Amino acid sequence: MSTTTEENFIVLDIGAGMATITLDRPRKFNALNSAMVQQFNEALDTVTEDPDIRAVVVTGSGKAFAAGADIAQYEKADAARFAAFTHACNDLCDRIDTFDKPVIAAVNGLALGGGFEIVLACDIVIAAESASFGLPEVSLGLLPGWGGTQRLPQFIGPNRARHLIMTAGRLSAAEAAQAGIVSQICALDDLTETARTLATDIAGRSPLAIAAIKKAVGYAAAAIPGNRGPGYALEQGLLFELFASEDGREGIAAFVQKRPARFTGR
Fold first, then answer.
1. Is the pTM of this model over 0.85?
2. Each residue of 99-122: pLDDT tens digit?
3. Of residues 172, 33, 187, 232, the one with CA closest to residue 7
4. How far is it, in rounded angstroms, from Cα 67 to Cα 181?
5. Using an 8 Å Cβ cutoff, are 134 and 170 in contact?
6. Which of 137, 193, 241, 246 is catalytic?
7. What is the pLDDT at residue 231?
8. Alpha-carbon radius of gyration of the chain
9. N or C: where does the chain have the smaller number of CB atoms within 10 Å of the terminal CB?
10. What span, in angstroms and rounded, lies between the C-alpha atoms of 247 and 207?
């Protein structure tokens, strides 16, 4: 079965004990806006309600997995709307992190900002050789606010995480694999088949055992899934302050207007 949402932001394919959720906004590099987040949640609702689905693959269409948030939406948002969107995106990442069925990210290209934060919330990550990962929010005068400052250090440590985030750096697929973020790399043409083969394998195993494994391994992480430590609240509070600052507004405006940002430290 294949269903497409009205605005074509999410495509949900269901079959053979698994579901594939495709972020389908290729002209915007699958950048997430409020409608897309809502539709993603609706797809997860469908998966939750179907007991025959035992594994989920999340991927992107076109050249990107997801290039983060739609910054044009940020430019038009006041503080309340920005906070509401940030909370919704955090809830989505937490939902993926604690979802009762395993979620496999099939990263076909760019996974930046919120796109990378979604990847970090997934259980297993398969990446195309050309995939790249990064949290470039500092270029907007902001910081990653969907859990990125909390989940990334679990893989690469706090020092390397600060380096990557402070410089808007990128990780190649090979570097992400070396860091333990990516568990398998393959050719782009083989990505979908590789991810679905893995999902089918997992779907054929005991769902009770798979759910228990997901929960048990999650408790080994520094930040326990579903139990946000103080770092998550701090991350969001700092992001809201940056969004309200002159530098934050300038960084967003410069991105939308495709010009260099002029930061003043205010």
1. yes
2. 999 999 999 999 999 999 999 999
3. 33
4. 18
5. yes
6. 137
7. 73
8. 18
9. C
10. 48
